[in-house]
Amino acid sequence: MHANLLIALFAFLGAAAAGLLGACVLLLIRRRSLALHLGVVAAVAVTAMLAGTLAVAQAMFLSGHDLKVVTTVVAMAAVVSLATALLLGRWVAARSRALTLAARSFGDGGDFTSPAGPATAELAALSRELEATSAKLAESRERERALESSRRELVAWISHDLRTPLAGLRAMSEALEDGVAADPGRYLKQIRTEVERLNDMVGDLFELSRIHAGTLALSPSRISLYDLVGDALAGADPLAREHGVRLVGDRVEPLPVEVDGREMSRVLGNLLVNAIRRTPADGTVAIAAERSPDGVVVSVTDACGGIPEEDLPRVFDTGWRGTHARTPPAGAGLGLAIVRGIVEAHQGRATVRNIPGGCRFEVTLPVAEA
Protein backbone atom coordinates (compact mmCIF):
# COMPACT_ATOMS: atom_id res chain seq x y z
CA MET A 1 0.00 0.00 0.00
CA HIS A 2 2.86 2.36 0.90
CA ALA A 3 4.57 1.61 -2.43
CA ASN A 4 1.42 2.43 -4.41
CA LEU A 5 1.05 5.80 -2.64
CA LEU A 6 4.67 6.59 -3.34
CA ILE A 7 4.25 5.74 -7.05
CA ALA A 8 1.15 7.92 -7.24
CA LEU A 9 3.01 10.80 -5.57
CA PHE A 10 5.95 10.61 -7.96
CA ALA A 11 3.60 10.39 -10.97
CA PHE A 12 1.60 13.40 -9.73
CA LEU A 13 4.68 15.52 -9.16
CA GLY A 14 6.02 14.78 -12.63
CA ALA A 15 2.66 15.46 -14.30
CA ALA A 16 2.17 18.65 -12.23
CA ALA A 17 5.53 19.98 -13.34
CA ALA A 18 4.62 19.35 -17.00
CA GLY A 19 1.18 20.90 -16.52
CA LEU A 20 2.65 24.03 -14.90
CA LEU A 21 5.09 24.42 -17.76
CA GLY A 22 2.24 23.98 -20.29
CA ALA A 23 0.13 26.60 -18.51
CA CYS A 24 2.99 29.09 -18.76
CA VAL A 25 3.38 28.35 -22.47
CA LEU A 26 -0.39 28.76 -23.07
CA LEU A 27 -0.27 32.09 -21.26
CA LEU A 28 2.53 33.29 -23.52
CA ILE A 29 0.77 32.23 -26.75
CA ARG A 30 -2.78 33.19 -25.70
CA ARG A 31 -3.14 35.50 -28.72
CA ARG A 32 -1.92 32.94 -31.24
CA SER A 33 -3.86 30.46 -33.41
CA LEU A 34 -6.15 27.83 -31.95
CA ALA A 35 -4.17 25.15 -33.78
CA LEU A 36 -1.07 26.08 -31.78
CA HIS A 37 -3.07 25.97 -28.54
CA LEU A 38 -4.34 22.48 -29.32
CA GLY A 39 -0.78 21.36 -30.11
CA VAL A 40 0.44 22.66 -26.75
CA VAL A 41 -2.41 20.90 -24.94
CA ALA A 42 -1.55 17.60 -26.64
CA ALA A 43 2.14 18.11 -25.85
CA VAL A 44 1.34 18.84 -22.20
CA ALA A 45 -0.72 15.67 -21.93
CA VAL A 46 2.06 13.50 -23.40
CA THR A 47 4.79 15.29 -21.44
CA ALA A 48 2.83 14.90 -18.21
CA MET A 49 2.50 11.18 -18.84
CA LEU A 50 6.18 10.89 -19.76
CA ALA A 51 7.33 12.92 -16.73
CA GLY A 52 5.26 10.80 -14.40
CA THR A 53 6.49 7.60 -15.99
CA LEU A 54 10.16 8.67 -15.77
CA ALA A 55 9.74 9.72 -12.14
CA VAL A 56 8.21 6.35 -11.26
CA ALA A 57 10.84 4.51 -13.29
CA GLN A 58 13.64 6.22 -11.42
CA ALA A 59 12.01 5.46 -8.09
CA MET A 60 11.49 1.82 -9.04
CA PHE A 61 15.01 1.49 -10.46
CA LEU A 62 13.82 0.04 -13.76
CA SER A 63 16.44 -1.40 -16.09
CA GLY A 64 17.69 0.62 -19.02
CA HIS A 65 15.91 -1.66 -21.49
CA ASP A 66 12.56 -1.29 -19.73
CA LEU A 67 12.97 2.48 -19.53
CA LYS A 68 13.77 2.62 -23.24
CA VAL A 69 10.63 0.61 -24.06
CA VAL A 70 8.45 2.89 -21.97
CA THR A 71 10.00 6.01 -23.52
CA THR A 72 9.47 4.65 -27.05
CA VAL A 73 5.82 3.90 -26.37
CA VAL A 74 5.27 7.38 -24.94
CA ALA A 75 7.07 8.96 -27.92
CA MET A 76 4.82 7.16 -30.41
CA ALA A 77 1.77 8.27 -28.47
CA ALA A 78 3.13 11.83 -28.52
CA VAL A 79 3.53 11.79 -32.30
CA VAL A 80 -0.01 10.54 -32.86
CA SER A 81 -1.47 12.98 -30.31
CA LEU A 82 0.34 15.99 -31.76
CA ALA A 83 -0.65 15.07 -35.32
CA THR A 84 -4.31 14.70 -34.28
CA ALA A 85 -4.26 17.97 -32.35
CA LEU A 86 -2.67 19.90 -35.22
CA LEU A 87 -5.13 18.41 -37.73
CA LEU A 88 -8.08 19.33 -35.52
CA GLY A 89 -6.63 22.78 -34.88
CA ARG A 90 -6.16 23.53 -38.57
CA TRP A 91 -9.70 22.38 -39.35
CA VAL A 92 -11.24 24.51 -36.59
CA ALA A 93 -9.06 27.49 -37.55
CA ALA A 94 -10.08 27.19 -41.21
CA ARG A 95 -13.74 27.02 -40.25
CA SER A 96 -13.29 30.04 -37.97
CA ARG A 97 -11.66 32.05 -40.80
CA ALA A 98 -14.52 31.17 -43.13
CA LEU A 99 -16.99 32.28 -40.46
CA THR A 100 -15.09 35.54 -40.02
CA LEU A 101 -15.22 36.30 -43.75
CA ALA A 102 -18.94 35.49 -43.86
CA ALA A 103 -19.61 37.73 -40.84
CA ARG A 104 -17.75 40.60 -42.51
CA SER A 105 -20.27 40.62 -45.36
CA PHE A 106 -23.32 41.68 -43.36
CA GLY A 107 -21.21 44.25 -41.51
CA ASP A 108 -20.69 45.88 -44.92
CA GLY A 109 -24.43 45.95 -45.61
CA GLY A 110 -24.93 42.45 -47.01
CA ASP A 111 -26.59 39.34 -45.64
CA PHE A 112 -24.85 36.67 -43.61
CA THR A 113 -24.63 33.21 -45.18
CA SER A 114 -23.23 30.40 -43.05
CA PRO A 115 -20.17 28.70 -44.64
CA ALA A 116 -20.87 25.30 -46.15
CA GLY A 117 -19.49 22.16 -44.56
CA PRO A 118 -19.52 20.54 -41.11
CA ALA A 119 -18.70 22.55 -37.98
CA THR A 120 -18.36 22.01 -34.27
CA ALA A 121 -21.44 22.54 -32.10
CA GLU A 122 -20.08 25.88 -30.85
CA LEU A 123 -19.31 27.23 -34.32
CA ALA A 124 -22.67 25.99 -35.60
CA ALA A 125 -24.44 27.80 -32.74
CA LEU A 126 -22.44 30.94 -33.52
CA SER A 127 -23.46 30.68 -37.19
CA ARG A 128 -27.13 30.45 -36.23
CA GLU A 129 -26.82 33.51 -34.00
CA LEU A 130 -25.10 35.44 -36.78
CA GLU A 131 -27.86 34.46 -39.21
CA ALA A 132 -30.50 35.69 -36.74
CA THR A 133 -28.54 38.92 -36.20
CA SER A 134 -28.22 39.39 -39.96
CA ALA A 135 -31.99 39.04 -40.37
CA LYS A 136 -32.60 41.60 -37.61
CA LEU A 137 -30.12 44.01 -39.19
CA ALA A 138 -31.81 43.61 -42.57
CA GLU A 139 -35.18 44.44 -41.00
CA SER A 140 -33.62 47.42 -39.22
CA ARG A 141 -32.10 48.71 -42.47
CA GLU A 142 -35.46 48.35 -44.21
CA ARG A 143 -37.21 50.25 -41.42
CA GLU A 144 -34.53 52.93 -41.54
CA ARG A 145 -34.94 53.31 -45.31
CA ALA A 146 -38.73 53.51 -44.96
CA LEU A 147 -38.41 56.05 -42.15
CA GLU A 148 -35.98 58.17 -44.12
CA SER A 149 -38.26 58.03 -47.15
CA SER A 150 -41.26 59.10 -45.06
CA ARG A 151 -39.22 61.93 -43.54
CA ARG A 152 -38.23 63.22 -46.96
CA GLU A 153 -41.83 62.94 -48.13
CA LEU A 154 -43.02 64.75 -45.02
CA VAL A 155 -40.55 67.61 -45.53
CA ALA A 156 -41.64 67.92 -49.15
CA TRP A 157 -45.36 68.00 -48.30
CA ILE A 158 -44.90 70.36 -45.35
CA SER A 159 -42.81 72.74 -47.47
CA HIS A 160 -45.51 72.71 -50.16
CA ASP A 161 -48.40 73.09 -47.72
CA LEU A 162 -46.72 75.93 -45.83
CA ARG A 163 -45.71 77.81 -48.96
CA THR A 164 -49.25 77.92 -50.38
CA PRO A 165 -51.03 79.62 -47.44
CA LEU A 166 -48.04 81.85 -46.71
CA ALA A 167 -48.06 83.10 -50.30
CA GLY A 168 -51.78 83.81 -50.02
CA LEU A 169 -51.35 85.60 -46.69
CA ARG A 170 -48.59 87.74 -48.15
CA ALA A 171 -50.65 88.69 -51.20
CA MET A 172 -53.76 89.53 -49.13
CA SER A 173 -51.80 91.51 -46.53
CA GLU A 174 -50.10 93.53 -49.30
CA ALA A 175 -53.49 94.21 -50.91
CA LEU A 176 -54.87 95.41 -47.58
CA GLU A 177 -51.76 97.49 -46.91
CA ASP A 178 -51.94 99.15 -50.35
CA GLY A 179 -55.67 99.75 -49.99
CA VAL A 180 -56.53 97.92 -53.19
CA ALA A 181 -58.63 95.14 -51.58
CA ALA A 182 -62.14 95.27 -53.04
CA ASP A 183 -63.65 93.52 -49.98
CA PRO A 184 -61.38 93.93 -46.91
CA GLY A 185 -63.78 91.94 -44.72
CA ARG A 186 -63.54 88.90 -46.99
CA TYR A 187 -59.75 89.21 -47.05
CA LEU A 188 -59.58 89.33 -43.25
CA LYS A 189 -61.83 86.28 -42.98
CA GLN A 190 -59.65 84.38 -45.46
CA ILE A 191 -56.51 85.40 -43.59
CA ARG A 192 -58.00 84.02 -40.37
CA THR A 193 -58.86 80.76 -42.13
CA GLU A 194 -55.33 80.37 -43.46
CA VAL A 195 -53.85 81.18 -40.04
CA GLU A 196 -56.03 78.49 -38.43
CA ARG A 197 -54.84 76.04 -41.05
CA LEU A 198 -51.22 76.85 -40.30
CA ASN A 199 -51.91 76.58 -36.58
CA ASP A 200 -53.40 73.10 -37.06
CA MET A 201 -50.37 71.98 -39.05
CA VAL A 202 -47.94 73.29 -36.43
CA GLY A 203 -50.01 71.60 -33.71
CA ASP A 204 -49.84 68.29 -35.56
CA LEU A 205 -46.08 68.62 -35.96
CA PHE A 206 -45.68 69.36 -32.25
CA GLU A 207 -47.86 66.38 -31.29
CA LEU A 208 -45.93 64.08 -33.60
CA SER A 209 -42.59 65.30 -32.24
CA ARG A 210 -43.75 64.49 -28.69
CA ILE A 211 -44.79 61.01 -29.78
CA HIS A 212 -41.49 60.29 -31.53
CA ALA A 213 -39.49 61.71 -28.62
CA GLY A 214 -41.40 59.55 -26.14
CA THR A 215 -42.52 62.59 -24.14
CA LEU A 216 -46.25 62.18 -24.72
CA ALA A 217 -47.65 62.34 -21.16
CA LEU A 218 -50.96 60.49 -20.76
CA SER A 219 -53.53 61.11 -18.03
CA PRO A 220 -55.69 57.99 -18.23
CA SER A 221 -59.08 57.79 -16.61
CA ARG A 222 -62.03 55.43 -16.80
CA ILE A 223 -64.29 56.55 -19.66
CA SER A 224 -67.25 55.00 -21.44
CA LEU A 225 -66.71 54.48 -25.16
CA TYR A 226 -70.30 55.58 -25.72
CA ASP A 227 -69.48 59.08 -24.42
CA LEU A 228 -66.12 59.18 -26.21
CA VAL A 229 -67.62 58.26 -29.58
CA GLY A 230 -70.57 60.60 -29.06
CA ASP A 231 -68.27 63.57 -28.55
CA ALA A 232 -66.22 62.61 -31.63
CA LEU A 233 -69.38 62.40 -33.77
CA ALA A 234 -70.58 65.77 -32.54
CA GLY A 235 -67.24 67.33 -33.42
CA ALA A 236 -67.13 65.82 -36.92
CA ASP A 237 -70.77 66.51 -37.80
CA PRO A 238 -70.23 70.03 -39.28
CA LEU A 239 -67.51 68.74 -41.62
CA ALA A 240 -69.74 65.81 -42.64
CA ARG A 241 -72.61 68.17 -43.45
CA GLU A 242 -70.28 70.37 -45.50
CA HIS A 243 -69.18 67.36 -47.56
CA GLY A 244 -72.66 65.83 -47.78
CA VAL A 245 -71.56 62.71 -45.89
CA ARG A 246 -73.83 60.83 -43.49
CA LEU A 247 -72.40 59.86 -40.08
CA VAL A 248 -73.65 56.66 -38.44
CA GLY A 249 -72.82 55.58 -34.89
CA ASP A 250 -75.59 53.20 -33.83
CA ARG A 251 -73.33 50.19 -33.12
CA VAL A 252 -71.46 51.57 -30.13
CA GLU A 253 -71.46 49.47 -26.97
CA PRO A 254 -71.06 51.37 -23.66
CA LEU A 255 -67.78 49.65 -22.81
CA PRO A 256 -65.40 51.13 -20.22
CA VAL A 257 -61.80 51.92 -21.21
CA GLU A 258 -58.86 53.37 -19.29
CA VAL A 259 -57.56 56.08 -21.66
CA ASP A 260 -56.54 59.71 -21.86
CA GLY A 261 -59.84 61.27 -22.95
CA ARG A 262 -58.25 64.25 -24.73
CA GLU A 263 -55.75 62.19 -26.71
CA MET A 264 -58.25 59.47 -27.60
CA SER A 265 -60.74 62.11 -28.77
CA ARG A 266 -58.01 63.31 -31.10
CA VAL A 267 -57.58 59.76 -32.41
CA LEU A 268 -61.29 59.36 -33.18
CA GLY A 269 -61.48 62.88 -34.60
CA ASN A 270 -58.55 62.25 -36.95
CA LEU A 271 -60.06 58.97 -38.14
CA LEU A 272 -63.48 60.55 -38.74
CA VAL A 273 -62.04 63.59 -40.55
CA ASN A 274 -59.88 61.33 -42.73
CA ALA A 275 -62.90 59.14 -43.55
CA ILE A 276 -65.18 62.11 -44.32
CA ARG A 277 -62.66 63.74 -46.66
CA ARG A 278 -62.16 60.50 -48.57
CA THR A 279 -65.85 59.62 -48.84
CA PRO A 280 -67.80 61.05 -51.79
CA ALA A 281 -70.96 63.10 -51.28
CA ASP A 282 -74.03 61.03 -50.29
CA GLY A 283 -71.65 58.42 -48.85
CA THR A 284 -71.69 57.02 -45.32
CA VAL A 285 -69.05 56.99 -42.60
CA ALA A 286 -69.84 54.58 -39.78
CA ILE A 287 -68.19 54.25 -36.39
CA ALA A 288 -68.66 51.23 -34.13
CA ALA A 289 -67.30 49.97 -30.81
CA GLU A 290 -67.48 46.38 -29.62
CA ARG A 291 -65.70 43.89 -27.43
CA SER A 292 -63.33 41.35 -28.99
CA PRO A 293 -61.03 38.62 -27.62
CA ASP A 294 -58.10 41.09 -27.90
CA GLY A 295 -59.83 43.94 -26.06
CA VAL A 296 -62.12 46.73 -27.19
CA VAL A 297 -62.24 47.53 -30.91
CA VAL A 298 -63.32 50.93 -32.23
CA SER A 299 -63.75 50.92 -36.01
CA VAL A 300 -64.33 53.68 -38.57
CA THR A 301 -65.64 52.59 -41.98
CA ASP A 302 -65.70 54.86 -45.01
CA ALA A 303 -66.67 54.68 -48.69
CA CYS A 304 -63.38 55.81 -50.22
CA GLY A 305 -63.30 52.94 -52.71
CA GLY A 306 -60.40 51.18 -51.01
CA ILE A 307 -56.66 51.70 -50.65
CA PRO A 308 -54.21 50.04 -53.08
CA GLU A 309 -52.80 46.89 -51.51
CA GLU A 310 -49.23 48.10 -51.93
CA ASP A 311 -50.06 51.24 -49.92
CA LEU A 312 -51.75 49.51 -46.97
CA PRO A 313 -48.50 48.96 -45.01
CA ARG A 314 -47.67 52.68 -45.36
CA VAL A 315 -50.99 54.19 -44.35
CA PHE A 316 -49.81 55.05 -40.82
CA ASP A 317 -46.35 56.25 -41.91
CA THR A 318 -45.41 59.86 -41.25
CA GLY A 319 -46.03 61.99 -44.34
CA TRP A 320 -48.06 59.39 -46.27
CA ARG A 321 -51.01 60.94 -48.11
CA GLY A 322 -51.79 58.39 -50.75
CA THR A 323 -52.16 59.77 -54.23
CA HIS A 324 -50.24 62.91 -55.15
CA ALA A 325 -53.48 64.38 -56.47
CA ARG A 326 -54.68 65.12 -52.95
CA THR A 327 -55.05 68.77 -52.18
CA PRO A 328 -53.43 70.64 -49.28
CA PRO A 329 -56.63 70.80 -47.19
CA ALA A 330 -56.37 67.01 -46.96
CA GLY A 331 -53.52 67.56 -44.48
CA ALA A 332 -49.80 67.01 -44.38
CA GLY A 333 -50.01 63.27 -43.84
CA LEU A 334 -49.64 63.52 -40.05
CA GLY A 335 -53.12 62.59 -38.84
CA LEU A 336 -52.85 58.82 -39.15
CA ALA A 337 -49.25 58.82 -37.88
CA ILE A 338 -50.53 60.65 -34.78
CA VAL A 339 -53.33 58.09 -34.46
CA ARG A 340 -50.88 55.19 -34.39
CA GLY A 341 -48.55 56.96 -31.95
CA ILE A 342 -51.31 57.77 -29.45
CA VAL A 343 -52.87 54.31 -29.70
CA GLU A 344 -49.53 52.56 -29.18
CA ALA A 345 -48.87 54.84 -26.19
CA HIS A 346 -52.08 53.33 -24.74
CA GLN A 347 -50.67 49.82 -25.30
CA GLY A 348 -53.08 49.32 -28.20
CA ARG A 349 -52.73 48.96 -31.95
CA ALA A 350 -54.14 50.63 -35.05
CA THR A 351 -54.80 48.71 -38.28
CA VAL A 352 -56.52 49.21 -41.62
CA ARG A 353 -58.00 46.84 -44.18
CA ASN A 354 -60.07 47.13 -47.31
CA ILE A 355 -63.75 46.26 -47.38
CA PRO A 356 -66.20 46.32 -50.30
CA GLY A 357 -66.50 49.94 -51.42
CA GLY A 358 -64.08 51.41 -48.91
CA CYS A 359 -61.76 50.69 -46.01
CA ARG A 360 -62.04 50.03 -42.29
CA PHE A 361 -59.73 51.53 -39.68
CA GLU A 362 -59.65 49.66 -36.37
CA VAL A 363 -58.25 50.77 -33.03
CA THR A 364 -57.83 48.00 -30.46
CA LEU A 365 -57.53 49.08 -26.81
CA PRO A 366 -57.10 47.08 -23.59
CA VAL A 367 -60.26 46.51 -21.58
CA ALA A 368 -60.47 48.60 -18.41
CA GLU A 369 -59.95 46.55 -15.26
CA ALA A 370 -62.98 46.08 -13.09
UniProtKB/TrEMBL annotation:
Its main location: membrane. InterPro entries: BphY/WalK/GraS-like (IPR050351), HAMP_dom (IPR003660), HATPase_C_sf (IPR036890), HATPase_dom (IPR003594), His_kinase_dom (IPR005467), HisK_dim/P_dom (IPR003661), HisK_dim/P_sf (IPR036097), Sig_transdc_His_kin-like_C (IPR004358). Residues 157-369 form the Histidine kinase domain. It is found in: Cell membrane. GO terms for molecular function: kinase activity. It catalyses: ATP + protein L-histidine = ADP + protein N-phospho-L-histidine. It is an enzyme of class 2 (transferase). The chain crosses the membrane at residues 6-29, 36-61, 67-88. Its EC number is 2.7.13.3. Keywords: Kinase, Membrane, Phosphoprotein, Transferase, Transmembrane, Transmembrane helix, Two-component regulatory system. Pfam families: HATPase_c, HisKA. PANTHER family: PHOSPHATE REGULON SENSOR PROTEIN PHOR (PTHR45453:SF1). This is Sensor-like histidine kinase SenX3. The lineage of its organism: Bacteria, Bacillati, Actinomycetota, Actinomycetes, Kitasatosporales.
